[in-house]
Amino acid sequence: MMLPPIDISYIANRLGELGEDLQRAREDAGNPIEPPPHILITGLDRLLDIIRAADKGSSADFAKAVQDTTGSDPEVLLEHGLHLLAQLAGVAERLGLADQARAIEQLALPLSCWMLRRGCELPHPEPVVNAMALLANSLRQPERLAELFGLMTEVMDGIGSERGLEMELGNPARPWRVLLMNRAIVATRSHQPILMEEAFDSIVEHLPEDAPDFFREGMGQMEALDYPVHVREVMRRYFEVWCVGQRLH
């Protein structure tokens, strides 16, 4: 499986393909489901047209063009786009199209990263964190997982640690924690020590209470899944500091 390109035309084309599946299923259903898929896709197409047209120059130019066109900040458009994708995935679920629902949910990743690259913030990252988790579960090749790690880092940087920790308060989904933990798992599965060290250091810095359990479970996975020696060495180093070393104090 390939990662979705961070490209508005790709998102629009994919929506068109998936929308046809949903529309056919809705027409075949005895009890038509609301809202009709084409209404949601029309809304998404309009949003994609607006942000593509605003994409000229700097992040400030982008924000001004969006504001001039819509009267709203880019963050409002991103939130609206993610909400429409969630609605469309829900319609797919109700039509019994589970694969299409997952494919729609995964479009949260290219949409969010495209907007982040133009200076947008991500006030509610749950949809994109979930999309990355779905992708991580479906990717097998270490080089593809390394690419996903890069996108996860973009999202992490786009949220920022201070706001990420604020999100944890009173949020049972804990998207910041989920993102950092999944990023470390993806780094491990990429078999690249430099990515592992970067991800593990983020857990140590931002989630110290989770570090011992993470590295303990990680050492168990090293044996169970027969990871290469160079990957085991990195995991062992952190395990000895955070699990063995902690017990000695």
Please, could you describe this protein's structure?
With 249 residues, this protein is mainly alpha-helical. The chain has a domain at 1-121. Helix content is 76%, strand content 0%. The protein is built from 13 helices and no strands. It has helices spanning 8-28, 37-53, 59-70, 74-94, 98-106, 108-116, 126-138, 142-159, 161-168, 175-189, 193-206, 211-224, 229-247. Helix 1 (8-28) runs antiparallel to helix 2 (37-53), helix 4 packs antiparallel against helix 5 (98-106) and helix 7 runs parallel beside helix 10 (175-189). The mean pLDDT is 93.
Number of E-state strands: 0
Spatial shape: globular
Radius of gyration: 20 Å
Structural class: mainly alpha
* Oligomeric composition of the shown chains: single chain
Order of helices and strands: HHHHHHHHHHHHH
Unreliable spans? none
Which range does the strand content fall in? under 5%
**Level of helix content?**
over 70%
Number of helical regions: 13
- Quote the distance from N terminus to C terminus: 46 Å
Largest pleated sheet: none
Indicate the mean pLDDT.
Answer: 93
